[in-house]
Specification:
Elements lengths: L4 H15 L7 E7 L10 H4 L7 H20 L8 E2 L5 E2 L4 E7 L3 E8 L6 E7 L5 H4 L17 H20 L8 E4 L4 E4 L3 E8 L3 E12 L14
Antiparallel strand pairs: 1-5, 2-3, 4-5, 6-10, 7-8, 8-9, 9-10
Length: 232
């Protein structure tokens, strides 16, 4: 193992040990550091749907699809391909729900059979405070930030809303802003303005990772952003 590969592998193993605790029964989860050359991990069918010409974006797409394909093989899917839809969401094999995410360093993926899990969303962020300009637009009055390290509470809130959006969009087809998702970090749950509820699991170190599992049925939609106090 080369000098560059050893730290990358150590970072993967450290995060994998934490995210393995997040996955409910029936959900598979994995991670990989993004490395030079990972753009070559894209299958030709996938590469044609990744329109970005930025090298890092293609590397991240290759890294995250490589680990997601490994998870799909474990689910019995032969020769899986994960294309990108026009909306930017990954296209999963029939009967599978899943989610992909990456930051500048790490890629994460989660997959499950739809027979046991309705829809998944995952997000990964550095374990650092959220920049002030983003922190100013993420919280709403319906959010509950107690019960977690307040140093990372807004970063976790941001990541949770990203994960919930990814879980809800395949079900409701609605584009949501931060103001349309209320998160209870203490209760590890969330609800969207479309009435979709989600259960959350997360870790804060060595990176912030949030896994959201959407409910099968939506409750009555909430009129947001005017009404931002959800009925939990």
């Amino acid at each position: 193992m080369s000098g560059g590969e050893a730290p990358a592998r150590a970072a993967e193993m450290a995060l994998l040990a934490e995210i393995a605790k997040l996955a409910p029964s029936g959900v598979r989860i994995a991670c990989r550091t993004i490395r030079d050359g990972d753009e070559k991990l894209l299958l030709p069918q996938e590469a044609r749907t990744i329109t970005s010409r930025q090298l890092h974006a293609r590397r991240a797409s290759g890294a995250v699809r490589a680990i997601a394909r490994q998870l799909l093989v474990l689910e019995g899917i032969e020769n899986p391909v994960i294309r990108r839809s026009a909306s930017g969401a990954p296209l999963w094999p029939e009967g599978i729900t899943g989610s992909l995410a990456h930051d500048e360093v790490m890629a994460v993926a989660a997959v499950a059979r739809k027979t046991g899990t309705v829809s998944l969303g995952i997000d990964v962020e550095p374990a650092e405070p959220l920049p002030d300009d983003i922190a100013a637009i993420v919280p709403i009055s319906g959010d509950i930030l107690e019960g977690v390290d307040q140093h990372l509470a807004l970063r976790l809130l941001f990541s949770a809303k990203e994960a919930v959006y990814k879980a809800s969009y395949p079900l409701d087809g609605k584009v949501l802003g931060y103001e349309h998702i209320a998160v209870d970090l203490r209760g590890r749950k969330a609800v969207t303005a479309t009435g979709r509820k989600a259960q959350l699991s997360f870790c804060l170190f060595p990176r912030v990772v949030v896994l959201a599992e959407a409910s099968a049925d939506a409750v009555a939609p909430v009129s947001w952003p005017e009404q931002v106090s959800p009925s939990w």
